[in-house]
Design brief:
alpha+beta, three-stranded antiparallel sheet, 3 helices, 26% helix
């Protein structure tokens, strides 16, 4: 029988391999997979929940990878993670991510955080336009 996610959180919340604790920071950061906000809290934890969502940039820096944990494959770690790659534009990707979360009824509480993460990744992948250097003025 599996333990509840609340019990798992009580066990790992103070000490796990993914935590980054620093002085003068009230909430420690987390480096775990499928943690959308990179904060060590129960809501965003990718370790303790049977359903999790993760958004990462794609390998070729053109799009995002939507990773999710399958609850039915919880005891088969190699098969438990599914991935969908979105390489279309930002608006289309936002719509697709929203549709996947809503259609599968998959952690609707993480929907806004996932959309913010997608937007931030696309913003970072956008190339900045080259600055035009002004033509040298002729002084006669």
């Amino acid at each position: 029988m599996a333990t509840s996610s609340h019990l798992n959180w009580l066990i790992v919340r103070d000490h796990n391999a993914f935590m980054l604790k620093q002085r003068n920071i009230p909430k420690p950061f987390s480096k775990e997979q499928n943690n959308l906000m990179n904060v060590s809290t129960f809501r965003y934890s990718g370790i303790v929940h049977p359903h999790t969502i993760g958004i990462t940039p794609s390998v070729d820096k053109k799009g995002v990878i939507f990773a999710y944990k399958k609850a039915k494959k919880m005891y088969k770690p190699a098969e438990s993670t599914g991935r969908i790659t979105f390489k279309s534009g930002q608006k289309r990707t936002l719509k697709k991510v929203k549709n996947v979360i809503q259609s599968k009824k998959y952690r609707r509480d993480l929907q806004q955080a996932a959309l913010k993460r997608v937007s931030a990744i696309y913003r970072s992948q956008k190339t900045k336009p080259a600055k035009k250097k002004g033509a040298a003025k002729k002084t006669e």
